[in-house]
Write a structure and sequence with these properties.
Number of helices: 2
Strand content: 35-45%
Order of helices and strands: EEEEEEEEEEEEEEEEEEEHHEEEEE
CATH topology of the largest domain: Jelly Rolls
Number of domains: 2
Radius of gyration: 22 Å
Helix content: under 10%
CATH architecture of the largest domain: Sandwich
CATH class of the largest domain: Mainly Beta
Largest sheet: 9 strands, antiparallel
Length: 349
């Protein structure tokens, strides 16, 4: 099923968590709502390069990550999802694109086969990301940066691209392998790009073998990367530990929270923004969106200079356990400013 959430909400102030944190899913497609054997052109917002019918891709049940269907990109396939044409405008903020892929052993692709992200769509085509599977070297290659990883055959493998349109950076993963780390978005490929994410292109380039795609999505991660750091002076259970958040504004309120669940803070910022947009107070929204973690406070106070610290007696019962810390405040621009979710493991007494 294709699911699309308009990006109107993203014009308000939110901020991201970490690369591992879940964001607000703005678009997704699992191909379950389309008939097997049907061309994807004209369905669910999908098109082809220049709308050419001969470059269509077929929905198939030969492979699937979830449900029973996926998209078969093979032969003349040159299939495009133009998010910008479908109302999902990505010109600021942080975004994560995920495309799950399946390649069978014995890949036959004389020209290789490609996954592409574009910063501009028709009529001014401009691509920022180009990955291709090369059967001659059994590698997936990120053009033009000559970063590569071995092809993982006969398994579903996610391609993940995170784009920060404020910092002009992007990172690319193939499975768990980081191929590109914070490379310029506008300067990638041939350079001269713009701060926009417009479309994806699944291009077979006359490959004899299929690349199957399933469970594709676009997530909104917030305004910018983490702007606070959380530190501590020791990690010994049974004693007092000073926890600090740095990077804030003198006199501005800040909270440091903890949880034993590393996913406890996932989606906080999008939830907080939603709540505030509906008239909730900052405290109410913090309580709603952090849930029980709102009660699990290292401390809530105000920055002195750019730092807030609070000392906490940690019981011996915490020895050997790991907790996850998260700090959040409001920046000078009135937008949420937060930290990465950071783990600390306490030494036994």
């Amino acid at each position: 099923m294709m699911n699309f959430l308009k990006a109107i909400a993203c014009t308000t102030a939110v901020a991201g968590l970490t690369a591992a944190a879940s964001g607000q899913v703005m678009w997704s497609d699992d191909f379950e709502s389309y008939a097997v054997g049907s061309g994807i052109l004209g369905q669910g917002g999908w098109t082809t390069w220049d709308g050419t019918p001969a470059w269509d891709s077929l929905v198939t049940d030969a492979q699937a990550l979830s449900g029973t269907n996926s998209l078969d990109v093979v032969a003349a396939s040159d299939t495009v999802y133009p998010w910008i044409d479908e109302g999902l405008v990505m010109t600021e903020g942080r975004w994560r694109v995920t495309a799950n892929t399946y390649v069978a052993t014995g890949l036959d692709a004389v020209n290789d086969t490609y996954f592409i992200l574009l910063s501009e769509w028709a009529p001014n085509y401009d691509w920022r990301v180009q990955l291709h599977w090369d059967p001659d070297t059994d590698t997936v290659i990120a053009d033009f940066d000559v970063a590569s990883a071995p092809i993982i055959y006969d398994e579903w493998v996610p391609i993940t691209v995170e784009v920060d349109l404020f910092l002009d950076t992007h990172s690319i993963w193939y499975g768990n392998t980081l191929l590109i780390d914070n490379l310029s978005w506008t300067g990638s490929m041939n350079g001269g790009g713009i701060l926009q994410l417009a479309a994806c292109d699944l291009f077979a380039y006359d490959a004899v073998s299929s690349v199957y795609y399933d469970d594709m999505s676009v997530e909104y991660l917030g305004d910018s990367g983490p702007c606070l750091d959380v530190t501590w002076d020791n990690n010994n259970a049974g004693g007092t530990i000073e926890f600090c958040a740095t990077g804030g504004i003198d006199g501005r309120q800040v909270g440091i929270f903890y949880s034993f669940d590393p996913t406890a803070f996932d989606g906080f910022v999008a939830c907080w923004d939603d709540c505030r947009g509906q008239g909730g107070s900052a405290v109410q929204c913090g309580q709603i969106c952090l849930g029980s973690s709102f009660k699990d406070q290292i401390g809530i106070g105000k920055f002195v200079g750019d730092t807030y610290c609070n000392s906490v007696k940690v019981p011996c019962a915490a020895g050997g356990k790991t907790v996850y810390l998260y700090a959040v405040t409001v920046g000078a621009d009135g937008k949420i400013c937060d930290s990465a979710v950071t783990a600390i493991t306490f030494n036994p007494c």
